[in-house]
Design a protein that fits this description.
It comes from Nonomuraea glycinis. The chain is mainly α and 65 residues long. The chain is 60% helix and 0% strand. The chain is rod-shaped, with a radius of gyration of 21 Å. The protein binds zinc ion.
Length: 65
């Protein structure tokens, strides 16, 4: 059951499994913690993607007069 956190996050569980896992999650701190961790991954990836160098805007070509 503990192994299904990833599948739950990815949304690949059957309706039955989904329901069963949510019921399990309700009383399982371990899975709740893991769920938080997994759920935070996309956010963290997004932060990593924000490359500081990307914010450096080059002036448009029309400036060269
Ligand atoms: Zn669990």
């Amino acid at each position: 059951m503990h192994d299904e956190v990833a599948a739950y996050v990815l949304g690949v569980l059957d309706d039955d499994e989904h329901e069963a896992f949510e019921r399990h999650l309700d009383g399982c701190e371990r899975c709740q913690a893991e769920l938080m961790e997994l759920a935070g991954v996309p956010e963290r990836l997004d932060e990593l993607k924000q490359d500081p160098s990307a914010s450096e805007d080059d002036p448009p070509m029309s400036m060269s007069r």
